[in-house]
Amino acid sequence: MVNLLDFNETGLIRFCQEAGEKPYRAKQLLRWMHQFGQSEFAEMSDLAKGFRSKLAALAMIQPPTIVSDHTASDGTRKWLLSTGASNAVEMVFIPEPNRGTLCVSSQVGCALACSFCSTGRQGFNRNLTAAEIIGQLWWANKLLRANGDEAVSTGEPASASRAVTNVVMMGMGEPLANFDNLVIALDLMLSDYAYGLSRRRVTVSTSGLVPAIDRLRERCPVALAISLHAPNDALRDHLVPINKKYPIQTLLAACERYLPAAPRDFVTFEYVMLDGVNDSVEQARELVRLVRNIPCKLNLIPFNGFTASGYRRSKTAAISVFRDVLMQAGIVTTVRKTRGDDIDAACGQLAGQVQDKTRRTRVRAAIDTEITG
Ligand code: SAH
Ligand code: SF4
Which residue has the CA at smallest separation from atom 22 of ligand 1? Predict the structure, then answer.
């Protein structure tokens, strides 16, 4: 039994052909599943009865199961989705006056172990399937519509009546470490028969898997955000360990290759603000020298704490000074507003439930004991 949420248009066309049906059936199926949120073949009224029963015998439409649903005081909403066998991931909806952004997870946990990230501390279990990735958008649109949330018009036809106008791959996991499933889900986000979002409204955030950045450029160039977090390799090696494999200059070269294909004429650099670690004026100047020649925007993210993180959020004044140094050098810099922190829905706080399959949590526990005791 195949799950039809695992297919983009190409995959569905192949499925229809193998079932002895015309390729245009794929478009009808996409509309039913993704635009109308339908999961029952029997309700797909413009499909021939024979095709509907064939579908019921061959396939299913199975999004992940919702385990919990919390709304923060600022309206941010977080859902926990079960991905089987004591594993669960989180997705977060951030409503704003003229848009609604869904923060989507790509893996159960993350193997890359950035030191300041709650997901990274939990270790890694597995990649999400394409159905589990797109299933998050599927659910969010369905639940927010049911909620009667004001739909926002983006001026783009297929998304005109949708609550989710933007998607950021900034939930749990490293999206580019799950490339094949990610791009199927991206195809659906962009398809006019599914969610119809424009490329600039879909952002992939990566800690810097260089070969996969190149593949994304060729396969599906959506907006790109890079988790930079440090102005030099010595510090970045420590905060974002994948830097040892793909150091900063290698990463920046990949950004420059990406730009001609990007839907916006800049890349976004994310920079988590850690008190006394990466937030000095000298480090701001070093950052300016580093990114000066790349068309970019800087997004400063005040660190969001979690139990035993070992880090503190930079002081508000330090964040302002850091931002001013960048702005004075002509680099557009924003400070990300912390949303949903009363329900642990802010950046880096997503934890879900991860049965670690790596040795990460054990190694980490040993390090913590060494530090604290
Ligand atoms: N794995 C991807 C996307 C998920 S994290 C990546 O690393 O880019 C989304 C953003 O939140 C990243 O920039 C990440 O570095 C940042 N982040 C992680 N932990 C954080 C924390 N505790 N506080 C603030 N931002 C955090
Ligand atoms: Fe993984 Fe991103 Fe967290 Fe690093 S910041 S551990 S890459 S989810």
Answer: 348
pTM for this one? 0.92
Residues with CB under 6 A from ligand 2: 110, 112-114, 117, 119-120, 173-174, 207, 227
In the residue annotation, 90 being an active-site residue is answered as: yes
| Ligand 1 atom nearest to 302, measured from its CA | 24
How much distance in Å is there from the Cα of 122 to the middle of ligand 2?
Answer: 10
Q: How far apart are CA 81 and CA 90, in angstroms?
A: 6
Q: What is the DSSP string of 72-112?
A: -TTS-EEEEEE-STT-EEEEEEEEETTEEEEE---EEE-SS
Q: How confident is the prediction along the chain (373 residues), in pLDDT tens digits per residue?
A: 899 999 999 999 999 999 999 999 999 999 999 999 999 999 999 999 999 999 999 999 999 999 999 999 999 999 999 988 789 999 999 999 899 999 999 999 999 999 999 999 989 999 999 999 999 999 999 999 876 554 444 444 433 346 899 999 999 999 999 999 999 999 999 999 999 999 999 999 999 999 999 999 999 999 999 999 999 999 999 999 999 999 999 999 999 999 999 999 999 999 999 999 999 999 999 999 999 999 999 999 999 988 889 999 999 999 999 999 999 999 999 999 888 877 777 777 777 778 887 765 555 555 444 433 3
Q: Which of 334, 249, 324, 326 lies closest to 285 in space, CA to CA?
A: 326
Our answer to whether residue 21 is catalytic in this structure is no
